[in-house]
Amino acid sequence: MKAAIIGASGYTGQILLRLLENHPKIKTVIPVSSTKAGTPVTDTDAAIGKPMKKTAETDYRYVSVQTATEMKPDVVFAALPHLKSAEVCAPFFDNAVVIDLSADFRIKDRNVFKEAYGQEPPRPDLLDRAVFGLVEVYKKEIKKASLIANPGCYPTCTTLPLYPILKKFKHTGPIVVNALSGISGAGKNLKENLMYCQRDENCGAYNPGKLHRHTQEIEQELNKARCGTDIFFTPHLVPLKRGMAVTSFVSFKKELTDEMIESTLNRFYKNSPFINIVGNGRIPETADVLGSNRCDIGWRIFGKQVIFMSVIDNLMKGASGQAVQNMNVRFGFKETAGLNIFGEL
Amino acid sequence: MKAAIIGASGYTGQILLRLLENHPKIKTVIPVSSTKAGTPVTDTDAAIGKPMKKTAETDYRYVSVQTATEMKPDVVFAALPHLKSAEVCAPFFDNAVVIDLSADFRIKDRNVFKEAYGQEPPRPDLLDRAVFGLVEVYKKEIKKASLIANPGCYPTCTTLPLYPILKKFKHTGPIVVNALSGISGAGKNLKENLMYCQRDENCGAYNPGKLHRHTQEIEQELNKARCGTDIFFTPHLVPLKRGMAVTSFVSFKKELTDEMIESTLNRFYKNSPFINIVGNGRIPETADVLGSNRCDIGWRIFGKQVIFMSVIDNLMKGASGQAVQNMNVRFGFKETAGLNIFGEL
Amino acid sequence: MKAAIIGASGYTGQILLRLLENHPKIKTVIPVSSTKAGTPVTDTDAAIGKPMKKTAETDYRYVSVQTATEMKPDVVFAALPHLKSAEVCAPFFDNAVVIDLSADFRIKDRNVFKEAYGQEPPRPDLLDRAVFGLVEVYKKEIKKASLIANPGCYPTCTTLPLYPILKKFKHTGPIVVNALSGISGAGKNLKENLMYCQRDENCGAYNPGKLHRHTQEIEQELNKARCGTDIFFTPHLVPLKRGMAVTSFVSFKKELTDEMIESTLNRFYKNSPFINIVGNGRIPETADVLGSNRCDIGWRIFGKQVIFMSVIDNLMKGASGQAVQNMNVRFGFKETAGLNIFGEL
Amino acid sequence: MKAAIIGASGYTGQILLRLLENHPKIKTVIPVSSTKAGTPVTDTDAAIGKPMKKTAETDYRYVSVQTATEMKPDVVFAALPHLKSAEVCAPFFDNAVVIDLSADFRIKDRNVFKEAYGQEPPRPDLLDRAVFGLVEVYKKEIKKASLIANPGCYPTCTTLPLYPILKKFKHTGPIVVNALSGISGAGKNLKENLMYCQRDENCGAYNPGKLHRHTQEIEQELNKARCGTDIFFTPHLVPLKRGMAVTSFVSFKKELTDEMIESTLNRFYKNSPFINIVGNGRIPETADVLGSNRCDIGWRIFGKQVIFMSVIDNLMKGASGQAVQNMNVRFGFKETAGLNIFGEL
Question: CB–CB of A345 and D184 under 8 A?
């Protein structure tokens, strides 16, 4: 198997490089970067340190998209900014399985996409072909997909606890979601508000309510579980490099019990190795899943109201790890191949 | 004026030491610590560095409560754990103005107190005398108080944006509050989950929903604004030393406008120098108010739903700064005396 | 007194704004920024929150250098990049006391300056006039100075423990200095290696040995104490916003005792309120002096070898605080006016 | 292969659990903790999340030393405090290869040990048997060892750059070593100075010069390279969880060139997959090797003086990773088996 990573010098691309180098089924990795083509990968990614064996075919260097096309990868990971990805990936759509980490193919409704991203989806002709790559929900579809829209980190961490529950139990009123994200979620952008001295010892909300683009993605997915959801989603930046914690408030029509929630989630996720239901016990923390592709889910019940807490590593289950999980499922590999279930210390 | 600080070696006590040393109206500061009596203050609080002049009367050392009693302070700040404070302060109740930073006198309803703290309030006989020390709301009562219950950090940061609004505009359904707090909010306790390696690069919720003791305090205050509030309050620990951000979701019966919210808050807080209404502009971040006694308040409107965002420094407006503000008001000093309006860099 | 701050939107300029607003002898503050002239200061410095009274004359806005000139400040603080400062300050040299926080006037030897900064000093004609603003050493000269070259943070923290000792006791062989600095020392520059995700959970040396520009400044000053010093200075970036710790290794010709070092420093610094000699006791840490203009000095003796440890807040004693201290001395104010001796918690 | 980890709930034990679970040659892992015997491992190590397969034989629980003895492990990792390890490991010395991460067997000279640890080595009878487990230097001896004294993190990071150079080139005068360490190096101890609020935004030296116990270990090893070394070693705590950076200053008798250093290191480490010589290029930073067992080595030359900079992950190459590397070499596995060469992002 040959895998290309387009945008291999961004955070998600860098993680993909590491995951694929250690992946038992990948023989060749093609690191693609239009701005860095020709440069040794170790020059811009000092943590790699020594040349990665699987990049030998490109002489351990970034190559251009053109070169990558000629190398005929079986699977292409696109780790590119929204609204740019679809175009750059064009040469691969008919020759490889494309796993796109941007938002370009995530939202099915063109008007909703426009509302979220300010313009038409770049390739509306491919929206039908694209499968939403939340493995725990769409495994069947992913197995046959040629284009997989890897979900955003916020939608992943929000949808996983809520989807099976909302599908089964009627809720009422708005769902109020608050999320905490590490700074790497903002990507490797030279912006003043991402400087060390701006974010260290600082935290706060941004794009609250309906303003974050991920709200539409969350609503799309949860609406499949239950019509009429109304999500108020407020993300917060907190001073950590990686990690995401989501706290979701739902009012149900009737009182739920721990057993009802636990058995519903257990049943839905019985074949999902990366879901860890901690229930009414420990409250999940982001460090629990650091470096892991796991999502830990807990909750507390207050009469008809339930507060769900879920955590992921935004760069793993929230991005690159999930992309590899999608590849594993798509190509019939073991779902956990090359991925950690256990968090680091 | 003589001021005693009981519990002067904890975080809030240490901040009080600094604030009072720089306060224009205080001549003598009595640092009290039962475990450290006799020790020079600089020995246990290296950041002080050089002896503070106002502690000359105690030879720059901690003294016992007994000694402090004999020195006849005019004002006593009690920076002690909940359920211990009332007892330790007993010798001062009739001879000094006591400003208690614990929860012992905050909750008026004995059953609600018991629910929150697991036992009867330690001095129910004094509950009538105690004034809830949220200056912006109870200034009139504070001016005459001999016992001031300094509010908790979470109730302060949650109540300030919501109180005037809920008083004026009818809301419906539950109010969902999510809070982020720096680690100093947990006090100087040797607990494993407060170790550097546990909290660095980690965040998550704790005591969600109705489980945090501050929920009762918030409900008590907001109920004065509007009967029937139902608060779901979820605090989160985030890796910073100081700072608190609160995000509150409220559904109103009718649509509000920015102008309605802004004018309501402006009117209510027109004499409140520490309230900074940033409105529909910048979203407040905790670093904006670091070291300051300010509370910054912003919001975003989504039809009938409004998301309020407020930030404080948990050790200043959330504890020691507010205690000094209470003293200022009680003794007729300038409300801002000895307190910063401006945040550090 | 009127004070202008040129470059008021950088880190050191922002700190100066706060220090001067609280300074008892300053009536008017003129915030100067060529790129932000006309903008309200609170728009770009959210932590200020409410308009600062002393900026009323500029309508609480940044003004241009031209406007500042017309306002005839008595003292001008230049918080500008090296090699730009001298030029921008030109209109003020004959009409105000200029306290320059850049390196433009620090190094007396033109060749040494060129070696460090790659070009001739921008105003060699003023080098004679400029006084090196290390108050603890040059107080007499500063009292009469019209141009004060505020020392760099590394030279300040390195020179203070060593200068009196090297003056008195003969050393031998190279002096090996290692310094740890918070990230704000690098200024508010949009560089990739200053992004949160690059510096969080990361540390390392940079410009080791003779490569950092501050080495020349340190050597200039220590050479005044004792000819022939040979300094090897290695700075390290560590993940904190503010703070600097310096560890210096010196071999002396004969064995020193704690008493010899202590009495030498005590004598030299007997009129220096910001020097805190902790000696052979506590080892100073940067948090001890956070927000303070203090320098704490400790040491350990091993035969003829001594290791000195000193800490400052790089933005206070290492920059803006020292600049205010220079103003205080120059204008005959109390040396500590408007400055904290005590560190924050 | 069966591996036991004694002290499996400390930081180094927790890392060993993860490394061995993913190690291709280990079939069974026995997690030993005297205080937690009987408790499921996931209860005290939330990041594991799901039961680790290789701990099935102990029912995924910690067991006592007694139980571990009965299970007859082939290799025993002792991750215990100094002065306790030798005693607890007693039952295994004759039946298993013991890799001891404490200092109990590192120092050969009983007087030097006493000087460093305040008492006689606990098992002087075994000192001859113990091999110092710095694989890059003692590979031959390790291959036959039954007791391996895994080196400390400071000695590892200091010795690796210096050993081959001091062996080849004559130096003169003292070697001055400054080290920066993440907080996990202090172990999982409930001490006030390891609390989040004490270490966040703080840094400073501790045990400078000759005071840190690791100095003796460093001197022992470097003395093998070259008699008469005199090391002044000053460690500093910096606010990161994991990571270690060492900056070493050496004066040589003659001028060295980059080529001389580079070829000497290349030759000495030609079979050492975890040594990454970055030379006179990039200066190594701790994040480069986070999660990796690599040591990156750089330097800068100033006439006869050279400053060496080396970085490791203190929990990997500085502890648990090196322990696994020792096992790999001892049992004839691939040296890199189960270990990362590449650092995390």
Answer: yes
